[in-house]
Amino acid sequence: MRFLVLGPALSAVLWTTGCGRTDGAGPGSGGAPTSSSSASASPTSDAELCARIVAYWSRKVLDSGTYGDYQSMGLSNGQYAILRDVVDAAQAAERHQGAAAADKLIDRQARRACAERYRHGTPSGGPWQ
């Protein structure tokens, strides 16, 4: 069994965005979980968690125009690299196609890049790689 220790910044992100919840009560789920949704939920994969947190911070960076420190965001160095690529693409999409296109691009690119990053399990090289 693996345990993941979360820092305060990541814990706050997961709490406010519903990331890591397996009870079906995250954003857009339609409200409180039912007993059937709680019983059949599966754990969030590393790739899905990565995609959620990268998408969350990508939107924050796109809205504010400034990057924070990857460690204060609760990201690994590799996840931060994904975030930078996603934000660069989202900024271009927003300029040329509007905010809705940028929003969709963020989700799509974060999912794709995180799936690639975690395709063989957790990357080696330490927890912050």
Largest sheet: none
Going by helix content, strand content and strand pairing, the class is: mainly alpha
Q: How many strands? A: 0
Report how far the terminal alpha carbons are from each other: 21 Å
How much of the sequence lies in strands comes to: under 5%
Question: Quick check: average pLDDT?
Answer: 76
Oligomer: single chain
Tell the overall outline: globular
Topology:
Elements: H1 8-17, H2 35-40, H3 46-64, H4 70-73, H5 77-97, H6 99-117
Helix pairs in contact: 3-5, 3-6, 5-6
Structural account:
The structure is a single chain. The protein is 61% helix and 0% strand. By secondary structure, the chain is mainly alpha-helical. It has one domain. Helix 3 (46-64) packs across helix 5, helix 3 (46-64) packs antiparallel against helix 6 (99-117) and helix 5 (77-97) runs antiparallel to helix 6 (99-117).
What is shown here, in short?
With 129 residues, the protein is mostly helical.
Structure keywords:
61% helix; 129 residues; disordered N terminus; mainly alpha
